[in-house]
Queue: 2 jobs
Job 1
Amino acid sequence: MANYSQSIPVSVLEKFRQYIEQAQNIILISHTNPDGDALGSSLGLWHYLMILGKNATVIVPNKFPSFLNWLPGLDQALIYEQDEKRGTQLFKEADLIICLDFNAFHRVERLEKHLISFKKPILLIDHHLEPDVTFDASISYVESSSTSELVFDLIDGLGDKEKINLDIAKCLYVGIMTDTGSFSYSCRHSRPFDITGFLVDKGLDVQSINVLVYSTQSEDRLRLLGHLLSKRMVVMQEYNTAYIWLSLSDQERFNYRPGDAEGFVNYALTIEGIKLAAFFTERKDVVRISLRSKGDFSVNDMARRHFEGGGHKNAAGGNSFLSLRGTILRFRKIVEVYEKFLHNSI
Ligand code: 5GP
Ligand code: MN
């Protein structure tokens, strides 16, 4: 994608400008189990809207991993599962909702009802495949590294690049770096690098952010990783597939907190020749599935078809309502069906 040049059409920028100008109370909302890009893009836009004098609030459905705790402005975000009453009130007062880093209402779980019943405009900023709702205006590009990249493009497109301060820079950089594995994938064009260069010129200290994001693990988390890699990883060599599972009892043993297993699926993908990696997390009522792939094999397709989920070509997620064991057996059967693709893709 050498010639890629991202630019949001002027007509879309003008719609965003008008909707934002006309609104005073704005809700920014992101997906369940928010990751670095969900929070980084929402908070980056939140800081910008505050500079514009808006009364904006970031709402996330549930708690985020602790390595993101330090993000500027996160202490003022509302975690819906902890304060449904205030959350519901905010939806009543809102003139505008902006959805970031997801494109299907069910991804916000218990917040979904507020989106469905909202009578005023809802806008989208996202980089996932196949939006399944029509929004009043959308910035939706799968070629973008991250939603944070698109928030930068929006602010830039509105002529406000110079309003980007250090807080916005930190938030957007975290979104870009976490969604690209520190610039190792989803970077097929120069935009995320250009944006990062601009943010560094604004005073962003890349090294200190990397320490905050990657070197603040708990001892429990690291020991859990060791345990899973040694005892819970299975390699299906004949299908170029590897998977790891995390049971409720292992979670108890290692004082598991939400987000502790973030990124673990990628270890399975680092084995030579492995093209498909899966990570199964047992929860009380569901098994969460994280899928990753190398090359042309689409885990978005697999997640959509078999696990009521979706995502990107090389990173997707979904759910299973079988037991952990039942889910893994089913996964193994599904992998057999994809055998040809697992052999053919690079
Ligand atoms: P993760 O494995 O990190 O939870 O998710 C990987 C990617 O897939 C993310 O971009 C995420 O937004 C997307 N994703 C995860 N779970 C789901 C899901 O249940 N439905 C859809 N549509 N996308 C998901
Ligand atoms: Mn993202």
Job 2
Amino acid sequence: MQLANQVALITGGARGIGKEIAALFAREGADLALFDVNAQVLEQTAAELRALGRRVEGLVVDVTNASAVDEAVSKVLDKLSKIDILVNNAGITHDGLVVRMEESQWDRVLDINLKGTFLCTRAVAKAMLKARRGRIVSIASIVGLIGNPGQANYAASKAGVIGMTKSVAKELATRGITCNAIAPGFIKTEMTDRLADEAKQRLRALIPMGTLGEPSDVAQAALFLVSDAARYITGHVLVVDGGLAM
Ligand code: NAP
């Protein structure tokens, strides 16, 4: 087991890619804290993961709320004693062409995807600095690298996550803390289920490997980045996209 005796905090961990990362980390021996907004789904996921024999704290936290994030991180430190790994995964889309995009649409996507990543990183990095070790992984997107029509807000948020990752990596590099990002392409989750069949067909045609990715493809990349095997990798953006962005 690669993560025995470690504690991982995963935001948006109740479903989708976050849940898959949580399950893989639990199978690798990590205890977990999950932040998410839907109490019912969160409790159900926490119960499933406890069945793997791990300690799991599910906390209802909106990552855009600074005081809620700080309080929840303190609770996790009280209950699980430490946080070795942070995965900033909570994220949303709210698509629209830029000329029709409402200010509120822009603000909400930037708030959750970018500010939420900042608030969680800030809260957890303080504890990691004291411990002089830690692993931070943020889930960006290839859309933050190559853009996508209808997703100016999402692309800006994910490009922001990538810039933030590199800055934080430089700030924390001498303190035993790595900070990396994963840029998934199109992965089968509820986020992409919402796309029309025609859009999915078009996407598939653009992916050299010819198929959408699975949440487990992203989870395995996250496991690598938090494992000892990646101890000398920081400020990196690991693209997991079936070749789409190359
Ligand atoms: P998902 O299935 O929609 O899951 C996202 C989770 O985050 C949900 O449980 C959601 O809660 C939670 N969340 C939303 N807002 C939150 C907030 N303010 N505070 C805390 N939790 C919040 O999405 P996914 O496809 O797994 O995506 C996970 C991450 O991967 C996102 O950052 C996304 O941008 C990124 N990504 C996904 C793809 C893809 O193709 N799926 C590709 C590239 C990048 P609710 O239940 O309320 O929605």
